[in-house]
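> example.struct
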């Protein structure tokens, strides 16, 4: 099995079309690991717009005809509070291929108050997309991306909690099929 290595995305958006009520501020800050954050201030039970990233500079580098084995998404994120009644957690974390949402890998785990990296998927997880779908779009600019959507829990009503994302990256795992060539020699 081979890997593309961890790849950074080059395009971002705060997208309301997938639900959510609060826009991300400075969404482009999620494109570099530099401790500047895309942020979203969330009241109790409110969800952010989707923080979408797509387009990988230079492409994924997967050879044509390779079998896609899986993908890992890493989200560098934090929340402004972590108590039993005040925290930020995932609402949606998924890979989108040509606008089709894959399996939602969100967890109910509270985001920590200091930046940490959350890992989703595995080297053998296609995120609910078919092999053919991956192979069709792995070479298309902007066709594969990641969506992160947060939800705020603030049942003590002290104030909003803030979701912060520093960086989103993805690594794709693949297998190149060995192709043997036969040479037939005819001797007379």
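> example.seq
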């Amino acid at each position: 099995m081979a890997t593309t290595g961890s790849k950074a995305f080059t395009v971002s958006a705060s997208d309301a079309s997938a639900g959510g009520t609060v826009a991300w501020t400075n969404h482009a800050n999620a494109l570099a690991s530099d401790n500047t954050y895309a942020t979203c201030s969330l009241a109790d039970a409110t969800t952010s717009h989707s923080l979408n990233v797509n387009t990988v500079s230079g492409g994924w580098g997967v050879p044509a005809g390779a079998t896609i084995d899986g993908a890992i998404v890493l989200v560098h994120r934090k929340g402004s509070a972590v108590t039993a009644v005040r925290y930020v957690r995932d609402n949606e974390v998924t890979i989108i291929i040509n606008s089709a949402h894959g399996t939602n890998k969100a967890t109910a785990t509270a985001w920590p108050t200091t930046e940490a990296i959350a890992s989703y998927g595995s080297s053998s997880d296609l995120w609910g997309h078919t092999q053919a779908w991956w192979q069709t779009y792995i070479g298309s600019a902007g066709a594969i991306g990641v969506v992160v959507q947060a939800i705020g829990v603030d049942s003590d009503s002290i104030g909003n909690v803030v979701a912060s994302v520093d960086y989103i990256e993805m690594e794709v795992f693949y297998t190149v099929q060995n192709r043997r060539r036969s040479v037939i020699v005819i001797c007379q």
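> remarks
The longest helix spans residues 131-137.
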